[in-house]
Write a structure and sequence with these properties.
Layout (H helix, E strand, L loop, with lengths): L1 H7 L2 E4 L2 H4 L2 H14 L3 E4 L7 H11 L4 E8 L5 H15 L3 E6 L3 H6 L7 H14 L9 E3 L4 H10 L2 E2 L6 H11 L4 E2 L2 E5 L4 H12 L6 H9 L13 H7 E3 L2 H14 L4 E5 L12 H8 L12
Parallel strand pairs: 1-2, 1-10, 2-3, 3-4, 4-5, 6-7, 8-9, 8-10
Helix pairs in contact: 3-4, 4-5, 5-7, 7-8, 9-13
């Protein structure tokens, strides 16, 4: 587990665009992110269609970076085929990829012709399949998309840790106190580099607001002390301000360090833009700005 913490570093870039933009642009942007010093590039796994091909593309374009799937829905995936593909990536590029896995929701299971069941039982069964595959994906190169204590405990027992979405620094503090120093906690953090509150909050709501209505996120946010007045469509200003780092670079740096001080090992920065066309298909200007913060973060200290 210490190995994956070391390879991921303290701060990475999480990007939908690194999967959605044209391949030549993605290749050029990934190479620049590598040169800028970002140790990890994260992309969503979604339903899995083309995800490992996109991982390979980034591994080739960014030869020093770790590439993480955050996260791939387990439904419709064959553990043996997944292990074979992962082994081929390792052979070609070295062990620089991290597999994030999630249970998604009952609709995803039904669309794959499978029964959702109890999430932790279903995920445990899938991890059994990975362990039994001809080319297993090692536990220390896996993580889970987890929020609640049961899935967190499974992640702690059978993977390197977990990648939570829509969480505050207080979440990391609570979970770190529960699980101890060993597992990786790598929260997603949406970022809007805009000092105007109205524009920044609007961009935040456009980017992550829809997820606030999902039952798993609502339950977790309620555990963190947010009430019905916060869990409205798009989220209250109070909730958006707690979940999204917006403002200037100093404001973003403060939020990242708050996560690290609370117990996170690694923070993934997801740039949201008030004007999605600002800079083209990829937020390269904002990534360059964020790179200036990399030398200034203090990693979490184990106790």
């Amino acid at each position: 587990m210490d190995n994956v913490k070391r390879t991921l570093g303290t701060v990475g870039i999480w990007s939908m665009e690194l999967r959605g933009a044209a391949r030549p642009e993605v290749r050029e942007a990934a190479a620049e992110l590598d040169q800028l010093g970002f140790p990890a590039l994260w992309i969503p796994g979604l339903d899995g269609q083309g995800a490992l091909d996109d991982v390979e593309h980034l591994l080739a374009a960014a030869p020093r970076a770790t590439v993480a799937l955050g996260v791939l829905s387990m439904w419709g995936q064959d553990p043996a085929a997944l292990g074979d593909h992962w082994s081929a990536l390792d052979a070609a590029y070295g062990p620089r990829a991290v597999m994030g896995l999630g249970v998604s929701n009952a609709n995803s299971a039904a669309n794959a012709g499978q029964d959702y069941g109890k999430p932790t039982v279903s995920m445990g069964r899938f991890l059994d399949g990975l362990d039994a595959a001809p080319h297993p994906i090692p536990a220390d190169r896996r993580l889970l998309g987890a929020l609640g204590p049961k899935m967190v405990d499974l992640a702690t027992a059978r993977t390197s840790g977990w990648h939570p979405f829509l969480v505050t620094p207080e979440y990391s503090a609570v979970q770190r106190a529960r699980v101890g120093d060993a597992p990786l906690i790598a929260p997603h953090l949406a970022v809007v580099l805009d000092r105007d509150p109205a524009r920044a909050r609007a961009a935040a709501r456009d980017g992550v607001g829809v997820f606030i209505g999902f039952p798993a996120y609502r339950s977790n946010l309620a555990r963190l002390g947010f009430g019905e007045e916060d869990l409205v469509p798009g989220g209250s200003d109070r909730l958006i301000d707690a979940l999204v780092a917006w403002g200037d670079l100093d404001a973003v740096a403060g939020r990242v360090q708050a996560h690290l001080d609370a117990g996170a090992d690694h923070v993934t920065l997801h740039v949201l833009r008030p004007d999605p066309a600002d800079g083209g298909d990829l937020p390269r200007r904002q990534w360059r700005e964020l790179a200036g913060l990399l030398p200034h973060f203090t990693p979490r200290t184990a106790h």
